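Trying the structure run again after the queue cleared.
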Amino acid sequence: MCYGRCRLKHYSFKYLSDNTFYTQINSKMRREGFFNLAAYSNDPVSIATAKIQTQFKETLPNQIISNDKDLDLVKLTNTLNPITSTQFSPVKNEWKQTNLPTPEFKKKQAECENATNGDQFAHLSSMASSVNTSSRLRCGWVYNTGDYTKGRGALGTINGPIETTASGTWMWDLNAAKKKYHTEICNNITNCGDIGASMYKGRCGWCKKSGKAVPVSGGVAAYPFSVKTACPPTRLQNNANKCTEAFVNPSVCTPLPNGALSRDCLLQKVIEGGCNDEGSMYQALRSGSDNDYLSQLKQQQAWSVYQNRAKQPLDETSLKTGKMTIANALDNFYYLNTMASSELGNGLNYAARDLCFKKGALDSYDFCSELNDSTNGPFSLDCLQNAFKVAGGQTSGKAYPSAATSSKWNALGKWSAVKDEINAMRDKTRSSNRVTQENAMMDFYGIILQNKQTPLQPPPPPPTITARIGEHCDASSGWRKPLGVGTWSAGSGFPRDTSYISVPAGLTATLVNSADQREIVKGPRDFNFCSRGGFNDNVSQIMISASA
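Done. Tokens:
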């Protein structure tokens, strides 16, 4: 409940344009008062009062959006007229909006969040210069102290952001956030030559007095009243080309006698550009030859993909020899980091991640996902085979794409034609024409269907394996006969004068003489009956069986 000047009780509102709502309520209350003059319907004051009540009961001019689903605006905006002591609510619950995000909220939130060109510092600077500090609902900044580049703008109040996915410290003062961000940018600079890089140019200068970089604006120190960021104009250098050894800190980036940057300098700039030591770029530079820093990188797929697709490919010649300025080196790696940090999700993005963040990242990318119906060949064998399998075809299919048949598939032209050919083949496996179906089943699945006009013949029986028996206790003289699997008796099953047996692999022969002695012969093996007493011309039974 409120008296005189009506104020809302707390700040849980999502959207309320400036103070218009309060101003209109306040001014109209002072002029007419919210009391019921229905008995004097023709009275001018009564008519005016009715119009005001209609305005605030039916056509609220400003939306009040809340993230509190239980918020009751009737109770929240109860008003007491001190003249009549009549309590009523000029606002109805029908105006309460909790189904966020509403179009108005989304628009305002987008204005706070979006950096149209991806430059978050430029976006923060723009907001800081145009912010209406009298508004209780405006853009603030979520500052990520772990990585300042991951900070984001957000719509909120002094108490915090209303809705954001960014993590960090809420900074309601955009100019303070800008100063902190600006200082962090320049803290990355290790020597004067860095200030010429696009990521620093016009934002950071080199202070000869402190031997460090400081934030600049318009060619002078941007924050001259802070000890860490101050620098006398006469001691400030803004042109990297005019950096001299007199005020450049000795570092790994001091040029070599031939004017080239050392390997260690390039590795340092890889890190300063936003990449890390797990990326293939860093690892290749570290292990490359002294005459060619890129010798270990140029054979990698990530390098070729990035160089072929990037609008600004890496400067191969300069990186190979190190003959480039510090600023150019930083620009190369900073742009690589920009591509790697994007969310494009395409081959270029994955190649950049491989080079900048994690060697091998490109291995997980499916290049076939980039193909659309209008893409022209030739197509990689992997994509042809994948399309065949996705449609249901089997690697055993006669038409399964291979190195030998890839030219046939590529001759179809567009990717849509390749898919149509595969789908047509699949459809033919259900054809009512038997010949068409048989051929398609063989091509698509590698399955042979029975030809009903010429039925399939049963497969031939496996060849019969037999032992061979003979006489004269050797393998070359006298008669010879086969003896198959079974139990055979002397006289009826084999001659009584049998004295030699040859057993092939896969069979075992058990010989039993009249004294019930046994000799087991497991193939492949020959047995001379004369070699064991009591067996020559005296075997009564031979049992042939398959070996276990």
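The first helix runs from residue 20 to 31. Worth checking whether this holds up in the mutant runs.
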